[in-house]
TrEMBL record:
Its main location: cytoplasm. One of its GO terms (molecular function) is GTP binding. It is found in: Cytoplasm. InterPro entries: G_TrmE, GTP-bd, GTP-bd_TrmE_N, GTPase_MnmE, MnmE_dom2, MnmE_helical, P-loop_NTPase, Small_GTP-bd. Keywords: Cytoplasm, GTP-binding, Hydrolase, Magnesium, Metal-binding, Nucleotide-binding, Potassium, tRNA processing. Binds 1 potassium ion per subunit. It comes from the Bacteria. This is tRNA modification GTPase MnmE. (6S)-5-formyl-5,6,7,8-tetrahydrofolate binds at R22, E80, K119, K438. Exhibits a very high intrinsic GTPase hydrolysis rate. Involved in the addition of a carboxymethylaminomethyl (cmnm) group at the wobble position (U34) of certain tRNAs, forming tRNA-cmnm(5)s(2)U34.
Amino acid sequence: MTGGTIFALASGAGRAAVAVLRLSGPGTAAAVTALAGRLPAPRLASLRRLRHPETGEVLDRALVLWFPGPASYTGEDSAELHLHGGPAVIAGVAEALVAAGARPAEPGEFTRRAFVHGKLDLTAAEGIADLIAAETAGQRRQALRQAEGALAGLYDGWTRRLTGLLARQEAFIEFEEEDLPAGLDDAVAGAAAALRGEILAHLADARRGERLREGVLVAILGAPNAGKSSLLNALAGREAAIVSARAGTTRDVVEVRLDLGGVPVTLADTAGLREAVDEIEAEGIRRARRRAEEADLVLVLFAADERPDAGTLGWLGPDALVVANKVDLAPAPAVIGDRAPLPLSLRTGEGLEALRSRLIEEAVARAGLAAETSLTRPRHRAALTEAVDWLAELEAAPLPELRAEALRAALRAIGRITGRVGVEAVLDVVFGEFCIGK
């Protein structure tokens, strides 16, 4: 459903001191007038008694704000009703707005209208969605940079350069017989190759922006009774997993979400690695191996008082952090596999803060928290990869017409990221992620 005048609750659901209903669309002025009697001065809060337009029943005493377009979030006539936050008040005012000709908004419809009216581009819209969903300070900073146009600025700059190159290439085609500067065609190819290198460098980011947005996955692996569940509980600060001296207690993957140095981390406790005693444990071990294969970091836990088992040693890959638990019972080995383990005693707490600090370092290294412009979504990566491929086609193209077509295709690919070009195919995907009222 598109068009018309929409409204939605912009504040959190449930009982609260204040609830904010926002409106946008051509009938906003009429709807506000129907409930509040008259429009307040633009962008000034005015206390009004709200009435049902059909029955005249008083619904609430509320603050009313009026934002005439285009100087509003959506670019349309908009308003906000700051109500008392009781569910009955909200329901009554919503019913009155429907009676006044408005309708409930779809998810993301306010921000979609802002995009349609040129108030922001698709990357900024995605940044707003990420800002609403941010769990950590690192996510908040990245989302705010994107919402304020950091990605759009970078991609618009590349678009302008590609447009200039295409204009020069077209000039070479149209006026080949004229007195054009020598080497114009070669200059276009050289500039396109330089731009391709910049985009490739942007792509070679080890998915840091995506990891910061989605979270870093850390899987804890080890033999039964090495202390995996105890470690999960210690890092989480609560009893998230069952701890027992009986081997094989953990049958399924148990996850907790942590904030480590501003990076969201999903910590996964897994079944102990050994020869399974039944089909349920076998399935738990299969899930443990699969989670380790998916993880950004594998935390391999050994018991200092036991000989390292071959099955666990097999997971000492480049993305593994080795920990020797139970150093209160025996000293940590100098080397496990090919590296020195971090000593830990979950019984006494020795080494726990050092391990936490190391996990923060590893999470930050994988996600990145610098004030840099990073890719945050697979669709950005796919579009830029397509642009790079087209610029590679340009380098190999034997005819100037084919080089011009490659430049046009690269322009379309980058334009899809910001929504400047070929936007319709991605609108529903982008705005479908939003909550109602945004």
